[in-house]
Amino acid sequence: MAVSAGSRPPSGPGDRPPRTGGDGDRPIDWEAAERSPEFRELIAARRRFVLPATVFFLTWYLGFILLCGYAQDFMGEEVVNGLTVGYLLALTQFLMVLVLGIMYLRRAEHTYDPLAQRAADRALEETR
Amino acid sequence: MPVAAVNLEAIVVFVIVLAVTLGITYWASKRATGTDGFWAAGRSITGFQNGSAIAGDYMSAASFLGIAGLIFLYGFDGFLYSVGFLVAFLTVLFLLAERMRNAGKFTIADVLAFRLQERPARVAAATGTLAVAAFYLIAQMVGAGALITALVGIDYNLAILLTGIFMLTYVIFGGMLATTWVQIVKAVPAHGRRDDHVDLRPRTASASTRPSCSATPATPRPRGRPTSSPASSWPARSTRSPSAWRSCSARPACRTSSCASSRCPTPRPPAPRVGLSPSALLHPDDVHRLRRAGDPRRGG
After folding, report:
1. What number of other Cβ atoms are within 10 A of residue B224's Cβ?
2. What are the residues facing A83 on neighbouring strands?
3. What distance in Å separates the CA atoms of residue B45 and residue B271, rounded to the nearest whole number?
C-alpha cells in the first residue's frame, strides 16, 4: 500500500497497539514482574557488563580526546616511521569498539536474551 | 559552484541508480502496509541486512566528502571526527538499543512519551529530532548537490531539489523497507563482490531452537486464538522460546514478507517493536523491559 505523505503512519484496524498493560481481561502485574528474581537476575547480569564497559570506553575515549587537546607533544611523538602516538591511540579506539561490541553481542545472545525470556515467562505464569 | 560539462556516462549511471532505487521503493510500497510495515519493515529486516543498511547509511556524503575533506584540511584533528562517530555506537549499543527494542517503540519520542508526560516529552523530542535532522540533512544535501553537480553537470540548485525529492519519495512511499534496501544496495558495491552477503541465517547454536518458518506457511492471522483480543495486532517479537509461540506461523512476523523464503526472520530485529501505551502500573526503573513479558501472553 502506498502511503501518502503525512506525519502519522497509517493504521489499519488490526494495527493499533493495545491500549492497556495487559491484553484487556487480565492486565500484567508489572510491579510483581519487576520484583521477580528472574528479572532481577537479568538486570544484574546486564549491569555487570554494561556498567564497567561503559565506564571503560568513556574513560578511554575521553582520555584520548583530552590527550589530543592538552598533550600534543606526547601525541605527536613518533613510534615508527611517521606513525605517531596519536594515530596509534586512535587505532586502539577502533579496536576497542570492535572488541566491546562483539563482547556485548555474545552476552546478549547467550545470557541476556535467555534471561529476558525466563523473566517474561515468569511474569506470564504469575498473571495466570 | 562550478558546473562541469554534461557527462553522458555519469548521467547514465545516475539514471540506473535512480531506476534501481525507485524500483525498490515501488516494490516496498506494495509491502509497507500498516504501522509495523511502514515503520519497521514488518520486522522482516534481519541483523545482517540492517547492518548492511547502517553501513550504507554511513557511506554518505558526510563520510566520503565531509570526513575526507576534514582530514585533508585539518589532518589528525579531522580524523578525530571519525573516531568519535564510531565510539558513539557503543553508547547506542550499551545504553539505548536493547531498551528501545524491548520498549517496542518506533521512535525516541515514543519511548519518552511512554515514560513521561506525553505532550512535553513529545515536544522536546520533536524539537531535538528536527534540529538534528535539519543540520544533518543540510550537510548531506550540500554534499549530494556538490557531487551531482560535479559528476552529472546539472545546476547545483536543481541537484539539491532532485536529491530532496528522491529522498522524500523513498521514505514516504516505501517506508522503512525501501530505505533499508536502498541503503543495502548502496553498501553492497562498497563491500565489493560478496556472494554470501545474502546469507542471513543466524549461525549460532540457538538458531536451531527457533521455530522454523519453512515448515508452516505464513498465515494472515495467528491461528487458534481469539481474534477479539488485541493479540492479533501484536507485532513480531523475537521470542527465543518455541513454547511461547507454537509455530512460526503463529508469530505475527510471518504475516509479513520473509517467510516466503525458507528462512525465519532473524529473532533479533534491531528495530523496536510496537508496544503498549502508557499504563498506570509502571515501576520507574526498567519497566520497559517488561514489554517483553507482556508479549508472549498476547501470543499464547
Report:
1. 8
2. A80
3. 8
Q: Which residues pair with A78 in a beta bridge?
A: A84
φ, ψ of residue B214 in degrees (nearest 5)? -65, -30
Chain A residues with beta carbon closer than 8 angstroms to that of B87: 57, 61, 93, 96-97
Cell numbers standing for residue B132? 538534528
B79-105 pLDDT, tens digit per residue, is: 888 888 889 889 988 888 887 777 777
Is B202's pLDDT higher than 60?
Answer: no
How far from each other are the two terminal CA atoms of chain B, in whole angstroms? Answer: 62
**Of residues A20, A14, A44, A35, the one with CA closest to residue B297:** A20
* Across B170-187, average pLDDT: 78
d(CA A36, nearest CA chain B) in Å: 11
- Of the candidates A46, A30, A107, A42, the one whose C-alpha atom is nearest the C-alpha of residue B293 is A30
| Separation of alpha carbons B208 and B63, rounded Å | 39
Confidence of residue B270 (pLDDT cuts 50, 70, 90): very low
Q: How many beta carbons lie within 10 A of that of residue B112, not counting itself?
A: 18
- Nearest chain B residue (CA) to A114: B240
The b-or-e profile of B149-186 (16+ CB within 10 A means b, else e) is bbbbbbebeebbebbeebbebbbbbbbbbbbbbbbbbb
Per the model's pLDDT, the better-predicted residue between A5 and B49 turns out to be: B49
CA distance B279 to chain A (A): 5
What are the residues whose beta carbons fall under 8 Å from the beta carbon of A46, sequence distance 6 or more?
A112
Distance (Å) of CA B102 to CA B57, B60, B96, B268, B271: 24, 29, 10, 11, 10
Which amino acid type is present at position B222? Answer: P
pLDDT digits (tens, 9 = 90+) for A8-62: 344 333 333 443 444 445 677 778 888 888 888 888 999 999 999 999 999 999 9
Mean pLDDT over B62-91 rounds to: 86
